[in-house]
Amino acid sequence: YFFEKKLIYPILAGAFFGLALASKITAIFILPLNISLLILNNCWPIKKQLAKNKFRKNIKKIFATILIFLISAYFFLRLAAPHMFESAFIWQTSLNKDYLSDLKELKTYSGNDVWFPPAIQWMNRSIFFGLENLVFFGLGLIGSFLSIMGVGILMKRIALLFKKAKLQKTLLIFALMLFWLFAFLIYYSQQSVQSIRYYLIIYPLLAIFAGIASANFLKKRKKKLLCTGILIMALSIWPLMFISIYIKTHSRIQASEWIYQNVPSGSIILTEHWDDALPVALVNYQQQYELYQLPVFAYDNEGKWLEMDESLAKADYYILSSNRAWGSIMRVPEKYPQMSKFYQDLLSNQANYQLVAEFNSYPSLEYLGIDISFNDSFADEAFTVYDHPQVLIFQKK
């Protein structure tokens, strides 16, 4: 759309934005970039129009284009997410009160003063935590390196053209993209929740920047075919490693099989609040176990520890089916002094339970015969605890 002034393009852009907004409300962050690019396209070329004093004549055209974009976005948003609105009539734009109330309630679940269990993982995090996850796990190191290189190349070209006062529409578009990207990263670094999935919105831009760096690299090489192959192989390393976790048996399934084969039927097994209990039901295994759930995320008070001590005294096994609890609680000892100390003792074999089995499923290239694996236990919790959690099985000493 940015190179041709056709009506279909703002309509399509609005449609895609509306569908994105219906999928996830945070798509609203892309709106300033969309509006800026629509304005740029309709007031270009800037120097010529300023010289002829024609900018005011284009104001109506700019507003008309933006209006078309917004109407298209609104129509597709209504089509894809009717629950967001108070009325089914398309001309009534009031948002659903229950929907707004849900958004406000979700906002209260995060922050350093909150005791909501899933929010504990975000406390005491570095402002660079989200960016670290993006670099290591979202794009991979090679993809991230190329994206950063692409940003550097663009910034250098943009600075050079501005210095020479030779504006180019394409580079101005990239300049707007870069400005929006940096503003987005700065904004999210200040948020209490920095889940890797919140950065999905910037992946297309990062892919474009990586493509620019790749093209710049290949342009300077004589053996382009060979270098292209090497570049593709390098970019494929992380996806191939990540795919490996889906080729292996899920770590919780492995752990469940071990439990059925090694833990006597009728044993008492401790699991944790807000985590998945093991063993899961499997075909060909009929053993039955007594499962008790420990209130690990509850306030560290006398009542909690009376319940904890009673359960720990009578149980035979204690299973951590992920690091959801201990990975979060141990980072906030000021909120959980006793629970943090308990986990330290447990993981260092100083408690009344000893580690008897451990199951991991780290990203690796072992399935390709290459002995390389990557311990991603420091990743955003959502990246590991569902698809390939670390499972630790402890037996009473």
- Summing up helix and strand content along with how strands pair, one would put the structural category as alpha/beta
- 3D shape: globular
User: Radius of gyration from the CA trace?
Assistant: 27 Å
**How many H/I helices?**
14
Number of strands: 5
Largest sheet: 5 strands, mixed
The strand line-up of the biggest sheet is: 2-1-3-5-4
- The percent range for strand residues is 5-15%
Overall pLDDT = 90
Distance between the termini: 69 Å
Helix content: 40-55%
The run of helices and strands is HHHHHHHHHHEEHEHHEHE
Weakly predicted, low-confidence segments: none
Task: Summarize the SSE layout with pairings.
Blueprint: H1 8-23, H2 31-42, H3 46-51, H4 59-80, H5 97-107, H6 129-164, H7 169-189, H8 203-219, H9 224-247, H10 251-262, E1 268-272, E2 290-294, H11 302-314, E3 317-320, H12 326-329, H13 337-347, E4 353-359, H14 381-384, E5 391-396
Parallel strand pairs: 1-2, 1-3
Antiparallel strand pairs: 3-5, 4-5
Helix pairs in contact: 1-4, 2-4, 2-7, 6-7, 6-8, 6-9
